[in-house]
Every structure is written in structure tokens, then in C-alpha cells.
Write a structure and sequence with these properties.
537 residues, alpha+beta, five-stranded parallel β-sheet, five-stranded antiparallel β-sheet, 14 helices, 20 strands, 40% helix
Length: 537
């Protein structure tokens, strides 16, 4: 088959269905002289059988069908072709020496034909009609194929942006490249910790697998395609033998040459390398380059998120107490667990302040997860310390925090629980602004929630007076944030009750008690957890 400059005009395999030997010979001769290959059938049944049996390059791209056939009409042949999903795309040109009226032509076109010619037919008109039908059909197939590949690219984009870590990223990118290019594929990249991650697959639908090879191969590939500081995409073509020797990846052994596209989003960042057989690129080089850019951007987004979260966590830690005060008769222990690595930081905070009225313990949570929540948390904690050392009772401190939020951070809401341990008295004062209730465990192991509750901070409301609770010597008080007990889809009371039981059964020592609670309740949680424990001796 002769390849012409315009792919839409390239030669094709054409099926000619005509019961007249002379007419069939003339049409086939014209087609062959124009470079096409021809399959011939003398009736409709034979023509449909040829279409059903044809495979690969022998599959016709167009059918020329006489209207008057001995076993069925050409219209019926056309309808059968268009009804079969495997041949529905095939353009059909009707020819006829007898069905030449306007109604005949209209019926043929209404019943699925793409063109209708009546004899006598000039060779130039016939071949021009064949070329036009092929051009339209090929353009339509290209558009459908491109739409399908774009859909694959969109799905791969979602997959790689949702990757949990470097290893899953490489596996998803390799599977996506294989699906997009309908070929074996491999991916090399650096994860967020600077380690090389690799994955390859033998083709669409095959499971990704890791491969070994020379260390720092990504840098070698980058040098082969572009300077280290270059951005955008660059392509390197290696022999399959060179690729296998360099990377240890054997999925391209029969490929001849391997095309490697490297993408870098900004200077100084490591590139992402995607590889496929060079012959698989074809007219999809731009799509493959777009996939490489997408993968590089996905990793860059993960790096940026890691850096932003690291900054927020560092800022968060600076806002938390560097040490706990030492108060007579009170032992304190604290645990703080930041949110999961893929979750934004929150505004959980704790505090212990010596005041004229005793030791004030506080725990709270700025609603929301963002760097802004961390900043509000820091400001609120400093305001709390200032109001506490002025000697205000817990509910009066909450009133002042309320005014502070309304004035400087309107719209922000905060939950907080304040407990004042009064010196020389076996009691505590509790003021709660919408926070989960603390747990008080008596020396005999009996544990209960201190359930007094007020509205959350930030609504402009006043807060009820603190409630006094008697506390026997040796009692344990635990304040915590909802990240410890909250489970999506479950009522909060269920988690609170489970925590109360565990506290009742837990060890007397504060450190083991807190660690045990975190082991039981913190695993898999996607929120910050603050836990402040006090034993009142």
C-alpha cells in the first residue's frame, strides 16, 4: 500500500460488491490503478462474510456496493454493515445502472449510504468520491480515537494527583502511560524524600512492577535529553539494549528503540521520565508529552504540599507551649499528634498557666484546617495566657476570648474547655465552650465525663459561670480534642463512651495512660489530636 503525503488520501483496502463481473472488474481496476487493494464479492452474503472474516490490514476501510444484487438489495447490505458495531464506521458508496431515480438515491442515503453514484460513472468522479469518503471516515476515526485518548489522559491525571506516595505514583503513571499509548511503558521519578521510584508494565491492563538497575539512572537520562536545569519536556531515543542495560527494565526487549520523555516543571527540580517503544509514539507524541508534564506537575504539587505543610507544622509547634509548669500537687503530661501527612494542619491547642486563682488547664480547637487556623490558634492561645494571669475565673476568660474573636477574627469559631485547679481545695472549676467534655477518673478507677456545656466561641454569646466539681486526692483529669474520638459516620457519643471506658481501665501513670489511649484511638485519624492529662495529688 502506497503511503501518500496526506494520510487522509492514503491507499486503502476497498470491498467491491457487484454481481456483474464486468462492472466489478472495471471498478476494481480503477481502484487498483489508484493504489488501493481490492476485495471482491459477487453478492451481498459473500460481501458481508468477507467483512466479518477480515482482520488487520486486510480489513476494508470502504465498501462499494451495487444496489441490485441477486440475494439481497444493496440497501440491505448497507444496513447490515451499519448495524454491526465492528463495521458501523465503514463508509458505503452505492453504484447502480438501473436504480437511478431521485427516490432511489434518496432511499439509499436515508438507509445509511455515504454516497450514491449512477452509471455511467467517470473514473475521476468515482475515485474522487472514494477519496472523499475515506477522508471523512478517517478524520472521524481520528477524532473518536483522540477523544478516547483524552478521556484516558484525564483519568490518569486524576490518578497521579491522588497518589499516596512515590511508589503508588510510579505505578499509576506507568499504568496510565500504557493505557494512553497502548504499549508497554515505564516510569522513573524521585519521590518526596529524594528516592528513585520505578515502575513498568508490559501493556494496558497488566499490573505494574518495579525494576532495578543502575543507581541515579534518572540523572543519566536527563543528561541524555537536556541540561539538568532545563524545564518543559525533552525526548531521548535509546536502543532497547541500551535502555535495558541502563535501567534493568526488560519490558522493551522487542521494541528496537525506546523513546524517553522527561518533564521538569521548574529549574532545580528533578525530572519525571516516561518511556514507551519509539514506534508507539506515532501521531500521539503531543499527548504523551502532556502526560509527562502532568506527572511532573503532580509530583511538584505533592512537593509543594509537603513544604507548605512542613512550614505550617513548624509554625504550629512554635505556638504550642515549650514546657509545662510545675505546680504543687499536680503532675502534668501532654501528647500532641499532628494530622496525617496528607491532611492540612489544624488549630488544636493546649495550655497550662499558673494564675492567682490556681493552675488553669485549657484545651481547644479552632474550627477548620488551614494555615489560617494555625495563626488564629497562636493568637488565641497568647490572649488566653494574658487573660488567665490577670486572675479571671474560667468563664470570664471565655468571655474575653469571645470578644477577642468577634473583634479580630469575625466568622471564626473555636471550641475550648478551661479547668481551674484551685490550690488547697479538692475541687476544680470547669467552663466549657462547645468542646468535647473532659474525663475525671477517681482513684478507685471510676471515670465520668464533666458534661457542663456552653456555646462555642465566636458567636458573640456570653458564657455561663464555671461549675465546681469535687476532686479526691489521686484523681486523674484528661482534656482532649475531638480528633481522638471522632470517627466519620459515627455518633460522637459512641467514641466518648469508648474513651471513658478505656480511661477507667488504664494505668495510673500518666505517660503510659496517654500512650495507650493514642495507640487505641489515634490510628488512621485525619485530624490533629491534643491530649492533656493531670493527676491531682
Amino acid at each position: 500500500m502506497t503511503e501518500q503525503a496526506n494520510p487522509d488520501s492514503a491507499a486503502a483496502t476497498v470491498l467491491v460488491v457487484d454481481d456483474d463481473d464486468t462492472s466489478r472488474y472495471i471498478l476494481a481496476s480503477w481502484l487498483r490503478r489508484d493504489g488501493h487493494r481490492v476485495a471482491e464479492a459477487a453478492d451481498g452474503t459473500q460481501g458481508l462474510a468477507l467483512l466479518a472474516a477480515a482482520t488487520g490490514a486486510d480489513r476494508p476501510e470502504l465498501a462499494v456496493v451495487d444496489v441490485n444484487l441477486p440475494d439481497m438489495s444493496g440497501f440491505q447490505v448497507c444496513e447490515s454493515i451499519k448495524a454491526d458495531p465492528l463495521t458501523a464506521h465503514l463508509p458505503v458508496i452505492h453504484v447502480s445502472a438501473t436504480a437511478i431515480e431521485v427516490n432511489d438515491r434518496a432511499q439509499g442515503l436515508y438507509r445509511g449510504a455515504d454516497a450514491y453514484l449512477t452509471e455511467p460513472i467517470a473514473p475521476t468522479e468515482f475515485l474522487a468520491t472514494v477519496t472523499a469518503a475515506l477522508r471523512y471516515a478517517r478524520a472521524r476515526r481520528r477524532a473518536e480515537r483522540l477523544a478516547g485518548r483524552i478521556a484516558v489522559l484525564n483519568q490518569v491525571t486524576l490518578d497521579v494527583y491522588g497518589a499516596r506516595d512515590g511508589r503508588s505514583f510510579a505505578a499509576l503513571a506507568a499504568a496510565g502511560a500504557a493505557a494512553l499509548m497502548s504499549a508497554p511503558a515505564a516510569v522513573l521519578a524521585l519521590d518526596l524524600d529524594g528516592r528513585e521510584v520505578r515502575a513498568a508494565t508490559g501493556g494496558p491492563g497488566e499490573g505494574p512492577r518495579r525494576f532495578g538497575g543502575a543507581a541515579a539512572v534518572l540523572g543519566v537520562l536527563a543528561d541524555a535529553s537536556a541540561p539538568q536545569e532545563g524545564t518543559g519536556t525533552r525526548t531521548a531515543v535509546l536502543t532497547a539494549e541500551r535502555w535495558t542495560g541502563l535501567t534493568g527494565c526488560e519490558v522493551f526487549e522487542d521494541a528496537g528503540e525506546v523513546a524517553v520523555i522527561l518533564a521538569r516543571t521548574s529549574p532545580g527540580r528533578p525530572p519525571v521520565a516516561l518511556a514507551v517503544p519509539a514506534r508507539a509514539l506515532g501521531g500521539d507524541r503531543d499527548l504523551f508529552a502532556q502526560l509527562a508534564r502532568t506527572c511532573a506537575l503532580a509530583l511538584e504539587a505533592q512537593r509543594s504540599l509537603r513544604e507548605e505543610q512542613g512550614l505550617a507544622l513548624a509554625l504550629q509547634r512554635t505556638f504550642l507551649p515549650s514546657r509545662l509548669p510545675s505546680a504543687p500537687g499536680v503532675d502534668l503530661t501532654v501528647r500532641y499528634v499532628p494530622a496525617g501527612a496528607r491532611t492540612e494542619v489544624g488549630g488544636d491547642f493546649y495550655e497550662a498557666v499558673e494564675t492567682p486563682g490556681g493552675l488553669l488547664l485549657a484545651i481547644g480547637d479552632v474550627v477548620g484546617h488551614s494555615l489560617a487556623a494555625v495563626v488564629v490558634m497562636g493568637e488565641l492561645r497568647q490572649a488566653l495566657r494574658a487573660y488567665a494571669i490577670e486572675g479571671h475565673e474560667p468563664h470570664a476568660v471565655l468571655d474575653r476570648l469571645e470578644a477577642f474573636l468577634v473583634q479580630f477574627h469575625p466568622g471564626v469559631t473555636v471550641t475550648a474547655c478551661l479547668v481551674l485547679v484551685e490550690p488547697g481545695r479538692r475541687s476544680v472549676l470547669v467552663a466549657n465552650a462547645g468542646h468535647v467534655p473532659p474525663v475525671l477518673r477517681d482513684p478507685d478507677g471510676a471515670a465520668r465525663h464533666l458534661t457542663e456545656h456552653g456555646v462555642i466561641l465566636g458567636l458573640g454569646s456570653t458564657h455561663p459561670p464555671a461549675v465546681r466539681h469535687p476532686v479526691p486526692a489521686g484523681a486523674t483529669l484528661l482534656l482532649f480534642t475531638d480528633g481522638l474520638v471522632e470517627v466519620p459516620g459515627e455518633h460522637l457519643d459512641r467514641g466518648l463512651e469508648a474513651l471513658r471506658r478505656r480511661i477507667a481501665e488504664g494505668p495510673r501513670e500518666l505517660g503510659p495512660l496517654c500512650d495507650g489511649l493514642l495507640d487505641l484511638f489515634a490510628e488512621g485519624k485525619q485530624d490533629d489530636i491534643a491530649l492533656l492529662a493531670a493527676r491531682l495529688d
